[in-house]
Amino acid sequence: xxxxxxADRVAAGTAPDRIVVENCAVATVDADDTxxxxxxxxxxxxxxESVGAGRAPEGLENVVRRIDATGHLVTPGLVNTHHHFxxxxxxxxxxDHNLFAWLVALYxxxxxxxxxxxxxxxxxxxxxxxxxxxxxxxxHHYIHPRGAGDLSGAIVxxxxxxxxxxxxxxxxxxxxxxxxxxxPDFAVESLDDALAATEATVREHHDPSFxxxxxxxxxxxxxxxxxxxxxxxxxxxxxxxxVRLHTHGSETVEEEKFCHELFGMGPTDYFESTGWLGEDVWxxxxxxxxxxxxxxxxxxxxxxxxxxxxxxxxxxxxxxxxDLLAAGVPVGLGVDxxxxxxxxxxxxxxxxxxxxxxxxxxxxxxxxxxxALRLGTHGGARVLGRAAETGSLEAGKLADxxxxxxxxxxxxxxxxxxxxxVFGAAAPVTASFVNGRQIVEDGRLLTVDxxxxxxxxxxxxxxxxxxxxxG
Length: 471
Prior knowledge:
single chain; about 475 residues; alpha/beta; 4-stranded parallel β-sheet; 15 helices; globular; disordered N terminus
């Protein structure tokens, strides 16, 4: 029964339909990192009703399904805090570039995207994440070419149809090449148009409720593609509308140099001067941060989307994640756009975050398996402002969870299932639930035809390439 129907039953005073998952290892990722070597999770409608050791309680009413999860680890669903879905159509290009050269190479192609491309690319990006355990995803879509159609609506509809909980970070750019920015002029909006379109997107699509499937954030792209006035007025708009703020920050040494040359200060001081630090803000990357920057983020509660694979792909550097966490900064994981992380998967970022951070100053003490899992679940939910609703397995939270199969050749000889999940090969997803609805079964999506989607994404990628070549 759909979650809405179950909610109607609760309102009518009858018990909701229940799904019982038992005989599994459980990593709750709650405040105490509670784990059960053999435990259960009971879903009631779109909520988690109970989590505990051993089998589920006897005598539960309206149990519509029992899952014997022997050989599995159950965790909260993974939370992706930063992505650019449209880049699914430009994977495998500019593979030997740093960030600025990569952007210059790809902006002319991205500037030709239209509504059908945006929808298909969103479907591809969401599908790859969902089949790998993502239940909540954020997309930072900042490119809105003139005459391209309703790109925001296309992305929102793709997420809705996929069944993934979703935050659309409605991005914008108003600093084109003629104003010293990187994107071509025809790919940017005016200040007024960007603000008006962002407000309209929030009013049309943002749902502030506890179990919201779609939320919207205000998200100017970056200091080198956005005017100071758009940053400042964007922050004012977000706070007037009661939504979160997102942008890129401190990603490369080139960005830091750009900010010093243009604004006379580093990225963090610039963000603070425009109202862009606070508990309602999260920034992608944050690779090049000094002690003062980290202290400012900690003082204000500003969150970080850590994207280890993309940072490596673009040679941006190693983010100081252990120092950010030690200071109390909220940190989650991000896939980033698939033109800088061709795999498009978040569960591989658990492993990459751990391994890459051990190459930094803290070496083997940088992160452990459970800290990596927390980044990808509760940490991400906190960054998106949804830690009260999802990100851990606790009674009353939303029924967003994943069953990872751990008894195959890839993992069966590793005693600790959390270590197996993080250090080992990508674990098969037997089942993934979002809002109490199953969207993945035995590694295959239940909400979309994957083979048909592979064909349509290939066709749209080729169409984009043809249009860009003619441009």
